[in-house]
Amino acid sequence: MAPASSNSAGDLTSEVLQALSKSDPISSTEAFPDIPFESIKAALDRLASRSMVTYEQVEREEAFLEPEAEIIVSHGSHEARVFEAVRQAVDGLSIQDLEGQIGDKTVTKLGQGKAFKEKWIKKDGAKLIALVESIDDVTRDQLKVIQENRTHDAKIVADLKKRKLLRMQKIISFRISKGTKFALELVKEETDLTAEMLASGSWKTAAFKPYNFNALGADQNAGALHPLNKVRHEFRQIFFEMGFEEMPTNRFVESGFWNFDALFVPQQHPARDLQDTFYVSDPVKAGRPAPASADDKHDYDAYFQNVKEIHQDGKYGSIGYRYPWSEDESLRLVLRTHTTSVSAAMLQKLAGQRKDGRVPPARYFSIDRVFRNETLDATHLCEFHHVEGVIADYGLTLGGLMEFMDMFFGAMGVTDLVYKPAYNPYTEPSMEIFSHHKGLNKLIEIGNSGIFRPEMLQAMGLPKDMRVFGFGLSLERPTMIKYGMSNIRELLGHSVDLNFIQRNPAVRLDKN
């Protein structure tokens, strides 16, 4: 066997070749017992890449003594020590004296039980006496064998392991054999084809180092997209493939008019309370809706008055909410609670467009942040992302909305949808969307949808025969599901793991 005196790569490869020249095959644990696993593996890979050796990895479990077992090997088993103490006492030994003589209460207690069971001792009055002249310390003998050979009969190993005297450890070794190009010396391999080699012709006989196409590249420490952005990209692709146009959503601060009133949300609605909404304190109020550019010819004053009349007195066939509508309340500034406020503004602008005297159909979507005064927990944040889509067209029906939802969620790999009637101030009818979660084995809500109220649309100037689908869901929930996360705070805030962001791949919604 080759000596294991050196750990350098060159010396070790030479030692492997020398060992193989004397015996083929060899075991790494027998030939190189003191060489670390990483060193022998590196040497073998170097030789195997040149076809000088072949090797296979061998895994086995070996038994190692726990500290208590090492004491037994040195001093005898608990039961043997108890027997020996009792045997040496001619007139017997009391339990108190036994504890004092052995010096370990645990050894005394465990050894007594085993010695009684083996019928080595018995109790005679207040004393213990020996029943036999000598014993075989089987436990000690078994542990000695294991200490030397790292193994024993499977039943014996299992029994000693149950007594917590052994621990099992996986040992990895290599069975090494000669390769097709075996030699006692490493042939120098060239890494580059040089001009000198071409000129001299030495390249014809030179040995070139093969390329390792399985080698990992160096970490470039490049930037990485956040998981939310990865899933957001997938959603955007689905919308674009379905013919949607992305809405501008850069207005985080909205007036109560666009965030609530334009969407037929009454001013007494609980969602407008401080407990659910963040209000801006400076400035407190916004101005009335007005054109953003000279090209915008829409009559905003008429629209503002229409919304007031719908709420206060009813209009366009609606009886309204019949309460004194407050302009000051309508113009209070809030952090938007949903991107539907942007949808309302886009639909109002759509009403001012005409092609051949008719408002054209349109499909809009948005994915952006919204803000709600929520109590923070594992599934709720004050700031999250709203995914929303609207479809404006003629002849739309509730059945058409359900069919579209099947197609939209089907593109994400979400099937078997269940629809439940719901209430939204700005849609009628409204439906919550559920899907069966196989992992939880129950229905979970994945979105909300409905058809916008006709009085809301007519107040904007849209024609009576135009209908608008609206639907929405959060971005965080599907991201958590796709990446197997149970706490939303792992996505945003101080709990975010940067390694998680860098290492996780993009998610293909239609394949998961």
Automatic annotation (TrEMBL):
Q: What is its EC number?
A: 6.1.1.20
Name its species.
Chaetomium fimeti
NCBIfam families linked to this entry: pheS, PRK04172.1
Name the UniProt key words of this record, in alphabetical order: Aminoacyl-tRNA synthetase, ATP-binding, Cytoplasm, Ligase, Magnesium, Metal-binding, Nucleotide-binding, Protein biosynthesis
Q: Name one GO biological process term.
A: phenylalanyl-tRNA aminoacylation
- What is any Pfam family matched here? tRNA-synt_2d
The protein's required cofactors: Mg(2+)
A single cellular component GO annotation: cytosol
Q: Which domain of life is it from?
A: Eukaryota
| Family, as annotated | Belongs to the class-II aminoacyl-tRNA synthetase family. Phe-tRNA synthetase alpha subunit type 2 subfamily.
Aminoacyl-transfer RNA synthetases class-II family profile domain segment(s)? 229-505
* PANTHER family assigned: PHENYLALANINE--TRNA LIGASE ALPHA SUBUNIT (PTHR11538:SF40), PHENYLALANYL-TRNA SYNTHETASE (PTHR11538)
Q: Which InterPro entries match?
A: aa-tRNA-synth_II (IPR006195), aa-tRNA-synth_II/BPL/LPL (IPR045864), Phe-tRNA-synth_IIc_asu (IPR004529), Phenylalanyl-tRNA_Synthase (IPR002319), PheRS_DBD3 (IPR040725)
Q: What is this protein called?
A: Phenylalanine--tRNA ligase alpha subunit
Q: Which GO terms describe its molecular function?
A: ATP binding; metal ion binding; phenylalanine-tRNA ligase activity; tRNA binding
Q: Does the keyword Plastid apply?
A: no
The record describes its quaternary structure and partners as: Tetramer of two alpha and two beta subunits.
Subcellular location per UniProt equals: Cytoplasm
Asked whether the UniProt record includes Ligase among its keywords, one would answer yes
